[in-house]
């Protein structure tokens, strides 16, 4: 390099010269945002004043992330209210405390050894554990949940019980991490009621079922003959917290039309009557049997 070749060098004056304010870039804080000035630092992570309401699915996910960290659920009903003692045998107490639902899909369907089953919105994994014991080592049980905290909890439960035929995945059940026509049974316990657009979820359910498959869904449904129960929210009156609490329902005919409109061949319903929730609410629950094709000569359940 020649004496006059200064490429790659910065003069001392350049190094010590104060940088213009405009050139200073604030480092992002723990929330991932960079305040432009000291007066903004304290409120950096707060939502802008003109930001719209939080989407329902975001609110629900945060709610269940928090429950998983807390280690106990204050939502929906306790498993002991809707499951039999035989179903809950050997299930860890901490799984029961964290599980939320409005019915027992496992009490409504007869699984067979070797089947592939998926739980949409598996939560802490209660239904996964029961299903895994029924399909046996030749079967496979897959759980899908949007909450990473719940997924970790369900994986821990499967490991603790020594069930190696369970696979728990993080994912949005509207776009599940599954191949089309890859499962025999889809089950979902009081999860579709957390989505304002149930039809989108039902389309995803139909897509992953093999020919002859069935979806067994527990959800909040009320009679066509009257108004919803006092604790059930319906229509535009439902808010984000109503969806998180699983108290948003629709009539039997509305639900039936949604299922058939999503591509199912037939649908049956069974009323489970009033179900008591942990927070004191009471909802009317139903078990929905959505058949990918026409109803079999002998129903699955």
TrEMBL record:
Domain Methyltransferase: 113-238
Transmembrane segment boundaries: none
InterPro entries the record matches: Methyltranfer_dom (IPR025714), SAM-dependent_MTases_sf (IPR029063)
Pfam families the record matches: Methyltransf_31
Family annotation (SUPFAM superfamilies): S-adenosyl-L-methionine-dependent methyltransferases
Protein name (Swiss-Prot/TrEMBL): Methyltransferase domain-containing protein
Record lineage: Bacteria, Bacillati, Actinomycetota, Actinomycetes, Streptosporangiales
């Amino acid at each position: 390099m020649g004496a006059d070749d200064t490429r790659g060098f910065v003069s001392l004056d350049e190094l010590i010269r104060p940088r213009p304010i405009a050139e200073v870039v604030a480092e992002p804080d723990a929330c991932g945002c960079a305040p432009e000035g000291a007066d903004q630092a304290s409120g950096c992570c707060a939502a802008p004043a003109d930001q719209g309401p939080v989407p329902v699915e975001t609110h629900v996910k945060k709610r269940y992330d928090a429950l998983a960290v807390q280690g106990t659920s204050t939502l929906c009903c306790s498993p002991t209210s809707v499951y039999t003692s035989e179903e809950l045998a050997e299930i860890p107490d901490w799984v029961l405390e964290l599980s939320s639902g409005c019915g027992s899909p496992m009490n409504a369907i007869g699984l067979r050894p070797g089947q592939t089953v998926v739980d949409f919105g598996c939560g802490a994994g209660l239904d996964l554990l029961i299903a895994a014991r029924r399909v046996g080592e030749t079967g496979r049980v897959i759980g899908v949940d949007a909450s990473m905290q719940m997924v970790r909890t369900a994986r821990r439960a499967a490991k603790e019980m020594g069930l190696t035929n369970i696979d728990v995945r993080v994912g949005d059940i509207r776009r599940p991490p599954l191949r089309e026509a890859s499962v025999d049974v889809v089950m979902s316990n009081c999860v579709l009621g957390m989505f304002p657009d149930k039809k989108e979820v039902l389309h995803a359910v139909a897509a992953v079922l093999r020919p002859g498959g069935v979806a067994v869904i527990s959800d909040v449904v009320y009679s066509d003959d009257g108004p919803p129960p006092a604790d059930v929210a319906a229509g535009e009156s439902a808010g984000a917290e109503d969806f998180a609490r699983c108290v948003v329902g629709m009539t039997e005919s509305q639900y039936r039309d949604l299922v058939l409109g999503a591509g199912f061949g037939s649908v049956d319903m069974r009323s489970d009557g009033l179900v008591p929730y942990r927070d004191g609410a009471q909802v009317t629950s139903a078990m929905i049997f959505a058949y990918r094709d026409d109803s079999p000569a002998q129903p699955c359940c």
